[in-house]
């Protein structure tokens, strides 16, 4: 274990088994085995993720909030259930969590193909989500391993719900000039300036080379970086109307979240038999 005060433990949250990583008093992460879904990330004492108070924890459906892992399909762009099946299945801890550096904790979750996954998608695979918790920083590393004898192809995302005090006052910086596809209008254009939110927003951006920033008045900004292996970044907020159609969101839920997703949406990743792919997202509160 790293410095004193660092620990991991099995926890229960809303009836679901979870793993908690705790680095001292002020940094922690909680992950449900269902979907290996991160439900909470506390950085320097402040929660930075949004988890809907109406999220359903039935061990079957998707949990609204935190960091859903979308695999092997992004959204409804294909024949599989929306955002694939990985967020709807029980993952396992790959090994006992522990210290990875003097001031860091690491946990790895694993999902392998099963009769349930093969009924939907006829491929052999191992999916791993590695979490590295540092003071003020969380790294999420997704690895896809084709363990079968046939090639496979997938799209995916780390569908991160970031918490905001008031979405109308929040801004996403760092995508100025990026090519974007508006999922609402179908139009392609270039982003001009920072992203602000005044209604439903659902856009797929060509990923930027430098980290993005989520800026809010009076709150330390959050930096969001992703590996170059993800071609896109998705930015989503349902706005009031779409929010009202989401049974697992409270009426004001959309005001308190912005999704910034490291994603591979437009061209599937092809993996030959035995090949691996890795993509990460890093969330940090700059010192
Ligand atoms: O409601 P879900 O299946 O979790 O999807 C939530 C959202 O995910 C992504 O951000 C997509 O770009 C949106 O179009 C979608 O509405």
Q: State the secondary-structure class.
A: mainly beta
What is the end-to-end distance? Answer: 24 Å
In the predicted model, the low-confidence regions spanning at least 5 consecutive residues are none
Tell me the CATH topology: Beta-galactosidase, Chain A, domain 5
User: Do you know the CATH architecture?
Assistant: Distorted Sandwich
Total domain units: 1
Proportion of residues in β-strands = over 45%
Mean pLDDT comes to: 96
Percent helix range: under 10%
Shape: globular
Largest sheet: 10 strands, antiparallel
Radius of gyration: 18 Å
Number of strands: 22
Number of helices: 2
Which ions and ligands are bound to the chains? Answer: 6-O-phosphono-alpha-D-glucopyranose
CATH class: Mainly Beta
The topology string of helices and strands comes to EEEEEEEEEHEEEEEEEEEEEHEE
Descriptive overview:
The chain is mainly β. The chain has a single domain (8-284), classed as Beta-galactosidase, Chain A, domain 5. The chain is built from two helices and 22 strands. The strands form three sheets. Strands 7, 8, 9, 10, 11, 13, 16, 18, 19 and 22 form a ten-stranded antiparallel beta sheet that branches. β2 and β3 (27-32) form a beta hairpin. The longest helix is centred in the middle third of the chain and has 6 residues, at 115-120.
């Amino acid at each position: 274990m790293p410095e004193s005060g660092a620990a991991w433990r099995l926890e229960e949250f809303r009836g679901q088994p979870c793993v908690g990583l705790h680095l001292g008093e002020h940094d922690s992460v909680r992950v449900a085995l269902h979907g290996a879904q991160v439900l909470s990330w506390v950085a320097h004492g402040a929660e930075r993720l949004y988890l809907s108070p109406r999220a359903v924890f039935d061990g079957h459906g998707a949990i609204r909030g935190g960091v859903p892992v979308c695999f092997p399909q992004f959204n409804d762009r294909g024949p599989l259930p929306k955002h694939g099946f990985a967020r709807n299945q029980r993952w396992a801890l790959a090994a006992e969590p522990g210290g990875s550096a003097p001031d860091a904790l690491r946990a790895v979750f694993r999902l392998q193909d099963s009769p349930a996954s093969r009924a939907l998608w006829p491929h052999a695979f191992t999916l791993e989500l590695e979490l590295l918790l540092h003071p003020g920083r969380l790294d999420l590393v997704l690895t896809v391993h084709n363990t079968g004898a046939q090639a496979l192809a997938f799209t995916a995302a780390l569908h991160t719900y970031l918490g905001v005090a008031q979405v109308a006052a929040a801004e996403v910086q760092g995508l100025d000039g990026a090519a974007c596809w508006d999922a609402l209008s179908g139009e392609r254009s270039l982003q001009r300036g920072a992203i602000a939110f005044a209604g439903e927003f659902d856009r797929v951006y060509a990923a930027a080379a430098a980290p993005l920033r989520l800026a809010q008045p009076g709150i330390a900004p959050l930096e969001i970086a992703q590996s170059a292996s993800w071609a896109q970044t998705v930015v989503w907020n349902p706005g009031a109307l779409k929010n009202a159609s989401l049974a697992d969101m409270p009426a004001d839920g959309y005001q308190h979240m912005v999704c910034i997703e490291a994603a591979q949406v437009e061209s599937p990743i092809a993996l030959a038999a035995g090949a691996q792919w890795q993509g990460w997202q890093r969330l940090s509160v700059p010192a």
